[in-house]
Every structure is written in structure tokens, then in C-alpha cells.
Design a protein that fits this description.
Layout: H1 2-13, E1 22-30, E2 33-34, H2 42-45, E3 46-58, E4 63-72, E5 75-86, E6 89-98, H3 117-120, H4 132-143
Parallel strand pairs: 1-6
Antiparallel strand pairs: 1-2, 3-4, 4-5, 5-6
Length: about 150
């Protein structure tokens, strides 16, 4: 799965989305708007990939999730990437930007990703991992209040 993230980063650095191994038919969004990969602003606006923060690979589901510290017009921006891979091709790609916005008083330190990188990328010990069914159940609870929780939360 790492190779798909690597080629995604390479495509940004080369400003060439055509090197991505896209499926013939694929789903794609940029900041929640449907858009063909070749028309996305990502490849025109990003001037540098500074750092890859969180990266999660789900081999079973064919999913990749990563948070990248990138430079856009000389400003640090957080880019979240989700891709789905099927038959060695990217069948889904979702790009979401998080920019510090002073107009609302909301600010975050994109550059701080580097400070916490070691803790974000630590493997969870085998005896502390939950199984896939439990994690799926937690995900469903977020969107469906009719599901009863069978555990205590802090």
C-alpha cells in the first residue's frame, strides 16, 4: 500500500496526476466536491510536500489514509488523503485540505506535525488492538443513535 502513497506524492512533486494508476472508472473528490483527478487544483497549488504525518494502511479493505504537511502558496497546509485500491488501481481518491483561518480565530500548527510524528506512527501492541468487528461497531455508533452501546466509555 505504501507504493500507492509514494506515487501520489511523486505525482504532486512532478505536478503530474497522470502518473497515478487510476482505475478506468473511479470516484474522486477534492474538498468534498466531485472532480476528475486531472482537473483538481491539488497538482497546481501544492508547491512542496514537506512531511507525511499519519499514514494508515488497511490491506484487507484496500484503503490508504494519510495526513501530509504541504506548502501551498508559501503557507503550510494539512492535506488529508484517502484512497481505495482495487486490482492494483486507485478506484477512489478523496483529498481534503485544512487551512489555518485567522478570520474565524481558528488556527492550528501544521508544522507541529513533525513534533508528534513519532507518537502518531507507533505501532499499537498486538495485545492492545481491537478486532475489526469492534472497530466497525464503533464507527456505526457515530452515525446511528439507534444502536445500543455494550461498553462503558470514559
Amino acid at each position: 500500500m505504501q507504493k500507492y502513497l509514494d506515487v501520489f506524492i511523486e505525482s504532486i512533486e512532478k505536478k503530474d496526476p497522470s502518473i497515478l494508476p487510476m482505475a478506468h472508472w473511479y470516484l474522486s473528490t477534492e474538498d468534498d466536491r466531485p472532480c476528475a483527478v486531472c482537473h483538481m487544483a491539488t497538482w497546481r497549488l501544492i508547491t512542496k510536500v514537506n512531511y507525511v504525518g499519519v499514514k494508515v494502511f488497511d490491506e484487507e479493505a484496500g484503503s490508504i489514509y494519510a495526513m501530509l504537511n504541504v506548502t501551498e502558496s508559501d503557507k503550510p497546509v494539512l492535506l488529508c488523503v484517502r484512497m481505495k485500491v482495487e486490482d492494483e488501481k486507485i478506484s477512489e481518491i478523496e483529498l481534503t485540505y485544512f487551512r489555518a483561518r485567522a478570520d474565524s480565530g481558528y488556527w492550528f500548527g501544521v508544522d507541529d506535525m513533525i513534533k508528534y510524528a513519532d507518537s502518531w506512527n507507533q505501532e499499537i501492541p498486538e495485545d492492545q488492538r481491537e478486532n475489526r468487528e469492534f472497530l466497525q461497531h464503533l464507527g456505526e455508533l457515530v452515525y446511528d443513535n439507534s444502536i445500543e452501546a455494550d461498553y462503558e466509555s470514559d
